[in-house]
Structures are given as C-alpha cells and as structure tokens.
Amino acid sequence: MPIAHNIQQLIQNIIAAEQRFARAPGTVKLLAVSKTQPVERIQQAIDAGQWAFGENYVQEALFKITALPAYVEWHFIGALQANKTRAIAQHFQWVHGLD
Predict the structure, then answer these.
(1) Is the Cα dihedral 11, 14, 20, 23 positive or negative?
(2) How far apart are CA 22 and CA 29, in angstroms?
(3) Contacts of residue 49, Cβ cutoff 8 Å, sequence gap at least 6
(4) CA max distance for the chain
(5) How far apart are CA 15 and CA 24, in angstroms?
C-alpha cells in the first residue's frame, strides 16, 4: 500500500481514539520513525501530511535533516552518547530517551 494511504488510515485511527477517550481533537500526534528509510520515502510521507519524524542514528539523521524541508519536526529517540549531544541539541526539536 502507498505511504499516503497508510498515513491517512493511521490519522483516522487517531481521530477515532481521541473521540473514544474524550481527548480534544488534535491532541494526539503521529510520530513516524524514519530510521533506515531513504529520503525519498520520507519525502513521500511529508507529501502525505506527516511532518514529525523520529531518528536514533545521529549521522543518518543529519543527512536527512539537511536534505528535507526545514519545517519537518525531528525527534531523537533512544540512548544519548556524550559525543553526540551537541549535534542532537542543534538539529532536533525533541529528545525521547531512557537510561
């Protein structure tokens, strides 16, 4: 199935869950984990309306961040390494980690 179809289906599921659990519309956000995915596939997801992506490989993410539109929201997911913290702080809007 095309990425756009899958994203639309997920969004409909999120809307239904918000309604079922009395959440305000738009309070649940879809975070697409894009690690190991090529830029072309991520761009297809962006074109379908997805704009928040999670990565856990800093070097791979930096390439994607520079290759894709500036309005994309990047989330670093996973363990932090001391030598990567500067790059993460400079290029990611969110950090989701657990130690």
Answers:
(1) negative
(2) 15
(3) 7, 8, 11
(4) 44
(5) 10
Q: Backbone dihedral region of 36: left (phi > 0), alpha (psi from -120 to 50 degrees) or beta?
A: left
List the Cα angle 49/6/11 in 5-degree steps: 60
pLDDT in tens, the chain (99 residues): 799 999 999 999 999 999 999 999 999 999 999 999 999 999 999 999 999 999 999 999 999 999 999 999 999 999 998 999 999 999 999 999 876
User: Within its chain, how far is the Cα of 23 from the centroid?
Assistant: 21
pTM: 0.91
